[in-house]
Amino acid sequence: MIENATQFGAAIASARKALGLTQRELALAINSGERFIVELEAGKPTAQLGKALAAAQAVGLRLTATGLPQA
């Protein structure tokens, strides 16, 4: 379970490396700057959520919310 920005960044980095992508290649894939990927993988807590989710999707991570009230 991912509980903080550092763990999320580590998961992104691990998945990216498993795919053989550089940080630059991932940045280009999500139309972002390489600096964003560097900061995201370093666990910067102020990373933009939309871009962070795009990065997760680009490396094949599937995010699931749990504990939500039933409708």
How would you sum up this structure in a few lines?
The protein has 71 residues and is mainly α. The chain has a single domain, classed as lambda repressor-like DNA-binding domains (434 Repressor (Amino-terminal Domain)).
> How far do the termini sit from each other?
24 Å
What would the CATH topology be?
434 Repressor (Amino-terminal Domain)
- Broad structural category: mainly alpha
Supply Rg: 12 Å
Helix content: 40-55%
**Strand and helix order:** HHHH
Question: How many distinct beta strands?
Answer: 0
Which segments are poorly predicted (pLDDT under 50) over 5 or more consecutive residues?
none
Domain HTH cro/C1-type: 12-68
Organism: Novosphingobium aerophilum
GO molecular function: DNA binding
Protein name: Helix-turn-helix transcriptional regulator
Give a topology summary.
Blueprint: H1 5-18, H2 23-29, H3 34-41, H4 49-58
Helix pairs in contact: 2-3
Task: Walk me through this protein's architecture.
This protein has 71 residues and is mostly helical. The protein has one domain: lambda repressor-like DNA-binding domains (434 Repressor (Amino-terminal Domain)), CATH 1.10.260.40. Helices cover 55% and strands 0% of the residues. The chain contains 4 helices and no strands. Helix 2 (23-29) packs across helix 3 (34-41). It is globular and about 40 Å long. The protein starts with a helix and ends in a 13-residue tail after the last helix. The model has no long low-confidence stretch (mean pLDDT 92).
